[in-house]
Each structure stands twice: as structure tokens, then as C-alpha cells.
Amino acid sequence: GRTKNAFNDAVLNDGRLRFSKQNVVYKSSKTGKVDNIPAAELSVATWRRVCLGHGIKLATSSGHVYKYDGFRDTDYERISEFFKANYKVELTEKDMCVKGWNWGTAKFSGPLLSFDVNDSSVFEIPLASVSQCATGKNEVTLEFHQNDDSEVSLMEVRFYVPPGPADEGADPVEAFAQNVRSKADVIQATGDAVCVFKELQCLTPRGRYDILIYPAFLHLHGKTFDYKIPYTTVLRLFLLPSKDQRQMFFVISLDPPIKQGQTRYHFLILHFSKEEELKLTLNMSEEEVEKRYEGKLSKNMSGSLYEMVSRVMKALVNRKITVPGNFQGNTPGAQCITCSYKAQSGLLYPLERGFIYVHKPPVHLRFEEISSVNFARGTTTTRSFDFEVETKQGNQFTFSSIEREEYGKLFDFVNAKKLHIKNRGFKEAKNNEYSDSDDDQHDAYLERMKLPQLLGYDSNASESDSGSGGDGSGDEGKKKPAKKAKVVKEKRERKPRKGKKQKDTNAPKRPMSSYMLWLNSSRERIKSENPGISITEISKKAGEMWKQIGKEDKEEWDGKAEEAKKTYEKAMKEYRESGGGSSTPAKKESKKEDKKRKSGGGEKEKEQGGNDSFKSREFISSEESSSDGERKKAKKAKKAKGTPQSRDKVLHCHHGNNRMD
């Protein structure tokens, strides 16, 4: 036979089951544990079909329940006859419910919680396996002890308890929880708390909690969740000053962690201001305090709030508090480094025996589990670097966006702790690289941006040189094409800008999607159900709710979106027919400007007759006008100004530079 005494047994324990006239004896092959059930105490015997054959459930008059399976179908008759003849108990057959329904009745019978559908059991929970029982609005959550021998363990079950009739005074949720707690292995508060700290700010889990200090466990009481933390699960205590020296972090490392749904909190982080003061009186006599805590605590204490909490925790947990060592950062007085981990900004504390990162998510790395560290150049900017830590298990932690001024001190600290540095020997090179990175670093992007302008200027200059043949005509030819290219370039850049700025504000607004229509109608309801929720959390919550909406409801909103789309198309059609949204005048004006520019350029070429040395008065320098040949050309330019065609030509050439004289 095989036993199934533990709720979280992933593998059934093999053993031998013996029925005798005096008792029922089972011995486990794995542990050697023996179950001895006297025949006189047997009260109920049930035969039922289980996943691996058939099984027997035995209940005693003292309230104990035993389950054994591994039987064959043919064993029923022999066992039933033996029970009738020797135990005076009838072996009844009972079928399990396999409909898959999740709505039924919870029945408490001794140490068992049975969930039944139509008087057929779906599953049973031994209440002795329950470690925590938490209540919420119409909900009870049961948490179970973890079975270290199994690879997979059931850790949590939630029951929805509907509200009872209005005339009943008792709360059905509390009644359900009380039945569980009466038989469960749940930490119960025996006696009064040693002391209570009201409304402490907690970073993980987030919120404000009242902390009740009991002799054997710590009780966190919040508005939504309660946590009971035995002192045996506390591994380490940390007291860490923030970078501004005005706040303190008190960190409690836990194993196993506390749980909230699927989230596991391995660290409890309390946040204090140094200015907060507290007068604390323990709920014990002075003699009892002296006897139990041996001078570590006194009945009446006063001081900073963080000092009171850390002092009480140190005495009750009986563990030392770890504080930062001799490390000093670049900021005067700071014993930590500002950095980012997984896109969240936080503080990295180099300790005497490890690193701890606060706060989201908290990370504690001991030197003995670190295989190597690496200093890497920042991926986004040259003003920062990354600090990579690789553990012996192969996990890598990257702390990024560390200011380059922190590099030298962090390198010296790691080197002094004799940690293996992958890029050792590059410290001076990195420091030199950081020092001149802003001055001498080659900017490839800037060079690419400059290159087209340089190439365009040189190519125009070479063409003008080949076409000119007089004194000084080469210099004039270089400058003139460059100006023309500049004017054309500026005009081309302005066109898309004007197009972007022009928005038709009178046009009908585009219709919203079905999701946006639903969100607008549900936003206030989400806010009322989740007071204090932020804008980003509203969007996240709405997305989750939208996924859970049924097909029929979505079709309703899709229909509304389709109606809005048809209304928009109809309004847009009427708007266009009435002349709205037309861009014809702007297009005609731009075409006229292009035509005028082209015709002006053609007349200019005809009038010059191949003479590339023509320049207006503004472009003739003092050096050029010193020669006789240039004076003659300047006179020709003045004469050319007298004709309407040449005047238009000069205005057109210098319109881009606002030279209108």
C-alpha cells in the first residue's frame, strides 16, 4: 500500500499495510514511520476511486484521518468482508466529483476541509498543513507548508465566500477563517505584543503597516494584507543610510520569503526619516525585560524611530545588524553608489562581506558567492560605466549608469577585497579614456553630417574653375555656386516644416477604437474600485480587464466603434464637399515660386552670356576691386542693375540672405 498523509506529497510514500483483528498498521518504507490504528477507534471506512487505482480513507473517533491507496478493484470485496467481521465497520463506496466545477460547498469535518459539489467530494485539505490563513473582501486565502522532499508543492488556495443574508450578524468570511484556524498549524498571537510601531513606511511590500512585535514572531498589519514572520526565518539585518544622509533603510532578509499571490518578498525594507523621534514603552515589567533580554532592552526607551526599531529587532531576533564599512563614495559622506538595476534606479552599498542593492528589486551578493566582476563602458553615454557581477552559479547582475567619478574608488574597493576582476590592468587606460572622452573623442556622426556639405562645395568650385579663364574669375566662380546651392537647400528644408505645421483644426475628429470607448466609460469605475491608483496603473489594470471581457461584451463595443467610424466617414465626406481640407492654393503658390525661380535663372544665364565673373556690389571685396579689370566688371554690374530683368535677377539671387539693396 501507499500512504498520502501529507497534503503536498508529490510522490506517494511506499510502504506495507497490514490489517489484523486488533489494529491497522502501516509502515513507511522511506522513513520507517509506523501508523498504528486500534480497531476499537475506527469509526468510518470509505472506498473510493483515485488517480492511481483505488484507495481507502479511515477516520477514527479521536478525529484523525488516514488515507491509503494503491489497491486494485478486486480487493474491495475481501477488505469489505474483513471490516464487517472484525471491526464492525462497513466499507462504503463513494465517488469523487470529476466535473471540474469550481463552485460548491465547503464542509469542515474534524481536521479536514472538504470541497463538495452535489454531495460528491472534489478535494480535501488537511487543515494541519495550513500555515497561514488570510481574509479579504469575500475571500479567504490558505497557504501551506512547503514540502522540501517534493519538486512541486501546492502553496496557496483561495476561496470566494459569498456574502450571507443581511439579517445574519456573523460575517461568513470570518466564520470560514475561524474554522480553519481552529485546526490549522497557523501562528497564533498568544498574549499581548511586546510593543507596537504604528504606520511605518514599507518599500517592499509597498505600503504603510503597523508592526506588532511578539516574542516569537513579527506581525505586519496593513489595510489589505497581513504578514506573520517567525523570527526563525530572519537571516540578516541591515541598517543603511541613504545618500542624502537624511533617511535610513532597515532591511530584513527572509528565508523562506513572505508571499503575496505569485509575488515573493525575500526582503522586508522599512524606510525612516532621521528626524522622526519615538518614546517606547515595552508591555512587560522591568524584571521580566531584564531577565529575558539581559540588558539589551529596557522598559522605557526613547530616540530616533529607526534606532528603536533596529534595537528591538536585534534583541528579539538575536542577530547582528550589518552596516556599511569603510567605503566612501564620490559624494562627501556617502557610503553608497547611485546606479540602476533592471531599469530601476537605486543605491548600491559595498559592505565588508558583500554588496546590497536597495531597493527595487533588492539584491544581496556575498563575496564568497561571487566568481568575478567586470567594469564595462556605459552603453548610452561616456559619462557613466557599468559594474557587472557574475556569481559562481552563473548568474550575472549588471548595475548600470554609475557616474565615472565613482570608478576609481569602486575599483580600489573591489581590488582590496581580492575579488577577481576580468579587465584588470585597464584602470589607467579607462581613467585616461574618461578624462579626454569629451575633448578628443572622434565623433563619426558629426563627420558624416559635415561630409555632404564639404563635397558639394568642392565639386561646385572645381566646375567653376574649369569654366573661368580671367584674373580672379576662379575665386568668383567658387563663391557664386556655393551661394546658389545654399539658397536651394534652405528652400527645400522649409517646405516640409510648413507642411508639418499646417493642421486642419476644423476637420472632424477621428473615431475611437472599441477599447478606447470601453476605457472612457470604465475609467471612473476603476478609480472608485482602486482608490489612489496612478494613471499608468489605470492603463495596466484596464488592459487586464479588457482581456477578461467576454466575446459578447466585446462585440457590443465593436459595434459602437463601427458606428463611430461610419459617422466619421460621413462627416468627413460632407466636410470635403464643402471645401474643407483643400490644399490647392498652397500648391499653386509653391508652383508659381518654382516657375519664377527657374525663369529668373534662365534669363540670368542668357544675359551673362557665359560670363561667370558677374557679381553684385555686395559681393565685391576691397581686394577684388583693386584691379582695373574688376572695376570694369563692377561698372557693368551697375549698368545691369538699371534694366528690369537684371534687377529681378539680383533680387532673386540674394533673397535667401535678405540682401534686398
Automatic annotation (TrEMBL):
It is found in: Nucleus, Nucleolus; Nucleus; Chromosome. Residues 457-540, 546-565, 572-661 are annotated as: Disordered. Its main location: nucleus. GO terms for cellular component: FACT complex; nucleolus. One of its GO terms (molecular function) is nucleosome binding. Keywords: Chromosome, DNA damage, DNA repair, DNA replication, DNA-binding, Nucleus, Transcription, Transcription regulation. Residues 632-641, 652-661 have a biased composition (Basic residues). Residues 508-576 form the HMG box domain. CDD domains: HMG-box_SSRP1-like (cd21994), PH1_SSRP1-like (cd13230), PH2_SSRP1-like (cd13231). Residues 600-620 have a biased composition (Basic and acidic residues). Residues 508-576 bind DNA. Pfam families: HMG_box, PH1_SSRP1-like, POB3_N, Rttp106-like_middle, SSrecog, SSRP1_C. GO terms for biological process: DNA repair; DNA replication; regulation of chromatin organization. Component of the FACT complex, a general chromatin factor that acts to reorganize nucleosomes. The FACT complex is involved in multiple processes that require DNA as a template such as mRNA elongation, DNA replication and DNA repair. During transcription elongation the FACT complex acts as a histone chaperone that both destabilizes and restores nucleosomal structure. Belongs to the SSRP1 family. This is FACT complex subunit SSRP1.
